[in-house]
Amino acid sequence: MKVIALVFSSLLNRKFTTGLTVFTIGLSVFLLLGVERVRTETRHGFTNAISATDLIVGARSGSVQLLLYSIFHIGNATNNISYDSYQYITNMRGVDWVIPLSLGDSHRGFRVVGTTDEFFDRYKYSRERPLEFIHGAPFTDIYHAVLGAEAAAQLGYQVGDPLVVAHGTGSVNVLKHEDKPFSVSGILGRTGTPLDRAVFIPLEGITAIHIDWSQGVPVPSQVVDAESVRELELMPESVTTLLVGLTSKVHAFKVQRLVNEFPSEPLLAIIPGIALQELWRVMSVAEKALIGISVMVILVGLAGMMTAILTSLNERRREIAILRSVGARPVDIFSLLMAESIVLVVAGIAWGVCILHLLIVLFAPMLQQSWGIVIKAGMLSSKEWYMILNIIGLAIVIGIVPGYRAYRYSLNDGLSVRT
Amino acid sequence: MKTANVIEISALKYSWASTDTPVLDISELSVPKGQRLFLKGPSGSGKSTLLNVLGAVIVPDEGQIRVLDQDLENMSQSRRDRFRADHIGFIFQQFNLIPYLSVIQNVCLGVRFSHRRSLQASASGLTIAMEAQRLLSALGLNDESLLRRRVTDLSVGQQQRVAAARALLGRPELVIADEPTSSLDMDNRKAFVELLENECTQSNATLVFVSHDPTLSDAFDRVLDLALINKVKNQ
Ligand SMILES: Nc1ncnc2c1ncn2[C@@H]1O[C@H](COP(=O)(O)OP(=O)(O)OP(=O)(O)O)[C@@H](O)[C@H]1O
Ligand SMILES: [Mg+2]
């Protein structure tokens, strides 16, 4: 089109308002894309974290709560599962394997997960990917620990380093199991799941460090030292949660019902996928509100652009009349103004995408640290492209207003350029 | 029916919308093809208004106006726009340059909107930009560095020549010049009129030239006082 080249010169002639408009639109686009990116990456991350597990069993509570504390290490269990129930479920028909998890302790802000070494074989993330050891190996002793990649990196630990488990999950721990130190036996590869921030120790280790404790405090009269503890029966009395693999997924509902109706203890079994759906339902209200606000902000940004162009029109009557006098038709003027809106919005979108990636690069590590959510920079998803196209579409619709106004001007003012 | 006249006016009346008093009332005026017409008359006598009618910028209230065998008064708005862009080179009294464009961009502005003019501008084998440069240097603006400058950085006399180059680019059949020499010094005035004549001769264009400077009229085929043919007597 003949007028496009003029658009850039004309916009550059108004650098300040142009810059401001592009900046505002950029921010609003960033907000929308950012909310969307966090939303999908969170979902992605949550879905990836549980792959091979068919059922999760815990003490009876809400299913979302169980899901959150067992897999995502968010929040705490209200109650434990007795060792007998654990054994019973292991022997149920249709159950292939059961991995116990014992939660509740921590090491320098990282959650300690007591489990069996079967965990490292069974656990899958991102559909079918198994856990990998980049250094060392699974536990061979009750005082061994395996670190998630992020935990190892942040703590700066290597295989063989000692570590002391603290009681409770607060980041400021008062009580530590200092008498029974662990040593790092292996470090896992990065998974992009909450496992990266976990410290795994054998279930027997959990029992050992608590053997001379009662009600959350050490009992001085019962002290058992680290070595003599080995002589004792170290099977735990209870575990926090069970990850259950079934021989076939068709048993899921049946096993779930049987666990839920377990007579001797109030238990809850959840199917991870279904619990996730429930979690999304809870979250979708907030998500929708956020998306709604972002869309509003986009509208405000576009309205700001329209105002800026309309304001400029008044000063540009002469410019428009001149263009008319050298042969531009009112339609050309209309296209000029339309193109201006589109150029502004496309520049704004580009800017918004830049901010998004900049902030992802800057803040993604922090998000992963405090929430375990991995947000990646990189290509825009098809959903994001769809949003961008919608914004451009909206800009075209909004651009009609100043376009039509300039069109009317140029018809009414005709070509009589008055100074 | 083709005639040898590029401009034919009969019983033309015009008054600006904001005022009811008529500005033009001309019973007859014709300009043959290739003629160079020098139009004079006191300030406010309606010279610019007449040029606007000839340039299809405004439509007369009454009467006929035929330019290049086209009846302007019956043309639609967009046809008139097209017609003006394709056939008429207009040097406006107030230059009408776009302040934020460079000299060369301003000169090429007109051909941007007319395919016909852009073809004619490059007919001699030069690119449009080169042709623009040729016109500018013929008008005494041969400093290369000047071409990329914003027009507003130029002196008024230089701006006037930029406006002239824009009107001449693409060899329009009718060149309308509204006091194009008012800001030029004596030497440049002569050179300007010479160039205008040359360009018009080369492309066999008709020239309507308005000026208050009687010393320039010698070079023209015909000198016309608007006050003599306009029945409206302006104050
Ligand atoms: N755009 C306009 N709107 C309303 N009235 C106008 C307009 N342009 C010119 N006029 C009026 O029309 C009359 C003729 O003006 P015009 O500009 O044609 O005179 P002119 O002969 O070109 O004068 P000058 O030699 O000073 O340029 C004047 O009374 C002027 O006030
Ligand atoms: Mg005038």
- Identify the CATH class of chain B: Alpha Beta
Radius of gyration of chain A: 31 Å
> What form of chain B results from the Cα inertia axes?
globular
Beta fraction of the residues of chain B?
15-25%
| Low-confidence residue ranges of chain B | none
For the biggest sheet of chain B, the summary is: 5 strands, parallel
- How many β-strands of chain A, per DSSP? 17
Bound compounds, each kind once, are:
adenosine-5'-triphosphate, magnesium ion
Q: Key terms for this structure?
A:
heterodimer; A: 419 residues; alpha+beta; 2 domains; eleven-stranded mixed sheet; 17 strands; elongated; B: 235 residues; Rossmann fold; five-stranded parallel sheet; four-stranded antiparallel sheet; 10 helices; 21% strand; globular; binds magnesium ion
Q: Can you characterise this structure?
A:
The complex is a heterodimer of chains A (419) and B (235). With 419 residues, chain A is α+β, with helices and mostly antiparallel strands. Chain A folds into two domains: 2-46 and 283-415, no CATH class; 55-270, no CATH class. Helix content of chain A is 52%, strand content 17%. Chain A is built from twelve helices and 17 strands. The longest helix of chain A is centred in the last third of the chain and has 44 residues, at 272-315. The mean pLDDT of chain A is 86. Chain B is of the alpha/beta class and 235 residues long. Chain B has a single domain, classed as P-loop containing nucleotide triphosphate hydrolases (Rossmann fold). Chain B contains ten helices and nine strands. At the A-B interface, helix 1, helix 10 and helix 11 of A face helix 2 and helix 4 of B. The complex binds adenosine-5'-triphosphate and magnesium ion.
